[in-house]
Amino acid sequence: MSHMHIQAAKDKGAGYARLQPGRALSPPVQIAIQRCDRDNQTFLGRPTHTSSGKEQTWQDYPTFFDIDLETGTSASECNLLLGPEICNHIDPDLDVVFVIRDAESPEIRTDFVFWPDVPKSGRLGESTIVVPPRPVEAPPPPRQSKKDAEDPEEKVQETDPDDETSEGKSGTETSEPPVTPPGPHVEKPGFVKRHWLALSVVFLVLIGSTGTVLYAFQQSLLCETGLSNCNETAGGDETAPAPPPSPPPVSNWERLIAGGPERWSEFYGDPSADPAEVHRLADHLMEDPDSPERFNHGVEALWAAAQQDHVPALLAVAALYDPVSDSGPTSAQVEKKPGLAMDHYMRAKRQGSADAAPAIERLCGWLSDQRFTGDGSANRLFSDNCGGRE
């Protein structure tokens, strides 16, 4: 693929770029990105964190990202919109290679492409932090004295400004408090009413409790004397019908499979996940090579299990890229890479796998034949890994 061009998508804001592939593509489109430094040829992946808490985005195996396709009237106007999950993790002035998949074409690997200075989203100054106003609390209600709370009707009467007997008018006459004649003490009407209401509530509670105790005592006497069948239900049947059986519980594995691509990615992207379960998920997703999405997620899960030196996963990755392997999952979308196959066979052998040695011997025989076809990479792999097998 030629005439590749990438530039910042200024109309989308920070964290976006457009890639012009120079040819027509059919959705869905996925890409993987590999850096081409002299001493670093890792792939861009989803962010993970190491044991020290440092974020890590470049990894040894490819991760394919779903890309939005902007189509035009011709192949040259076809653009791939790259979002923050890609642009925020690639530094400028970096040579990269794109691996592109679409619905109708086989996997395509581009030439070197120069990554420009694409502004990253989330930088200081791009957003304003708005502090919500602090709610104003209402002032507390004025405190009421105990006397006013008991009898709000009894208050101190204020002096009537129009009273002719007030000191302001006569200047000589003064008001005196009324004299209460002696007699028996009489409770105020409001106080008596409140006492009667409280006594009524207590009386009703005692009646209800007494009735409940008497009913329970009566039922226990009838059951003991045999005058009442205490085992009968309210409907008259001696035995109640058995409840319907509850459905079997849904296992965690069934929830994982039903969760779809988002749940799969979350599971195999977790470094604390059991590599055996991640490998099991990979085998399940790669059973149907006619479903590209499921197969691609299965390959990524297989790589994740192999990264933890899980021997069955190491052998499965090696068989996937081995040009002479007759076992393991196969797909027309997987390009055979003897270098990757040899690397994973060697790792499995170092982990004590007995199946790795025969596979290495078989692959060395194929590399020995390829040396005479002018394949320089085959000659180098043979000399590095198959010494003494002439």
Explain how this protein is built.
The chain has 390 residues and is an alpha+beta fold. The chain is built from twelve helices and ten strands. Among the domains are: 5-115, Immunoglobulin-like, CATH 2.60.40; 259-385, no CATH class. The strands form two sheets. Strands 1, 2, 3, 6, 7, 8, 9 and 10 form an eight-stranded antiparallel sheet that branches. It has a two-stranded antiparallel sheet with strand order 4-5. Strand 1 (5-8) and strand 2 (17-20) form a beta hairpin. Helix 6 packs parallel to helix 8 (292-307) and helix 7 packs antiparallel against helix 8. The longest helix is centred in the middle third of the chain and has 37 residues, at 189-225. The two termini are 39 Å apart.
Structural class comes to alpha+beta
Q: What is the number of E strands? A: 10
Largest sheet: 8 strands, antiparallel
Helix/strand order: EEEEEEEHEEEHHHHHHHHHHH
Summarize the amount of helix as a percent range: 25-40%
Number of helices: 12
Radius of gyration of CA atoms, rounded to a whole number: 42 Å
Principal-axes geometry comes out as elongated
Low-confidence stretches: 123-132, 154-174
**What does the average pLDDT come to?**
75
Q: How far apart are the termini?
A: 39 Å
The portion of residues forming beta strands comes to 5-15%
